[in-house]
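REQUEST ID: PR-0412
SUBMITTED BY: lab tech R.K.
PRIORITY: routine
TASK: structure prediction, single protein chain
INPUT:
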Amino acid sequence: MVEHRQGAVLQLRQDHAEYAARARNLDDASGVDFIKEGDAKGAMAGAAKTISAEFTTEHVAHACMEPMNATAMVNGEKIEVWAPSQSPFFIFLATSVRLGYKPENVTSHVTLLGGGFGRRVEADYVTDAALLAKAMEGKPVKWCGAARTISRTTSTGRSRRSASSPGWTRTAS
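STATUS: complete
OUTPUT:
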């Protein structure tokens, strides 16, 4: 007999259900118009045909195709980092703010990243490489996360909801 425990996965599903319910109940007036052309509400009210669809995703492991990796080298008060990052500024924050290097002593090289899918926006993997490099001054240190470890420690992608309600002013003949 298999017994399942309520744990993090169940909590994420409950969070997703709550998020989806909240998103469904948002008042249209509370949103922000990025582009506003014409009278969408009036056009929808006069549409000959409308359809509505909702798409949601649950929290999922935010894993990218290539293993998380970074190379760092510390020489005295200076640090140099090579990382496939989607946010070079976060490399700067990881090394200057988290580890205390002066901004002028931080050099970062952004390498090709392949399929990052948003996971490489964070710089936690850069911090790991930088901490190791700090302990081995003068030598480049490459940190590469094993897929097994990454899948247990990676952040989860956010729950999402997208809704669409197109309308047609006349029917096709």
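NOTES: The longest strand covers residues 69-75.
REVIEWED BY: pending
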